[in-house]
Amino acid sequence: MALDALTRTAVTATLHCLTGCAIGEVLGLVLATWWGWATAPSIALAVGLAFVFGYAFTLVPVLRSGMSVRRAVGVALAADTVSIVTMEVIDNGVMLAVPGAMDSGLGDPLFWGALVFALVVAFVLTVPVNRWLIARGKGHAVVHGMHQGHRENSAHDDHSAHDDHSAHDDHSAHV
């Protein structure tokens, strides 16, 4: 089944979000489980780290493009907030819904199986949200709009001053 360009962009944007969210989510839940934390603080740490890593995955390449920190933070917030919130609500909801998942240890296959399942469900349900946002020029489209403006203002096609520009165009930096 071939996907249209908008859906492909939404899938890629969601993979970008999933990467940052998964790193933060896994790190947070692993640390909280290792430290023996209760469910609520475990989820708080995982969600907090998911936002940190999710925003960082947008912020770093945008900063490398030469954008000011203030503007880059605004771009990252505009590009990723709805996607990260959606993914985190779904992911943590699934983790809470799987009996015993939050109480299982790091050596328990239930912990890892539930976490992988939660991330897959979150990805599948976040793609349509990102597609809807991108179709309206919101969400990840903000990053693409920034790159479009960069291209229009550039006097050459080299883009050597913006190492990650081509990566954003083909989304390889988001996978």
TrEMBL record:
Residues annotated as domain DUF4396: 8-139
Region (Disordered): 150-175
Keywords: Membrane, Transmembrane, Transmembrane helix
Transmembrane segments: 12-37, 43-63, 72-90, 110-129
Any Pfam family hit: DUF4396
Entry protein name: DUF4396 domain-containing protein
Protein species of origin: Longivirga aurantiaca
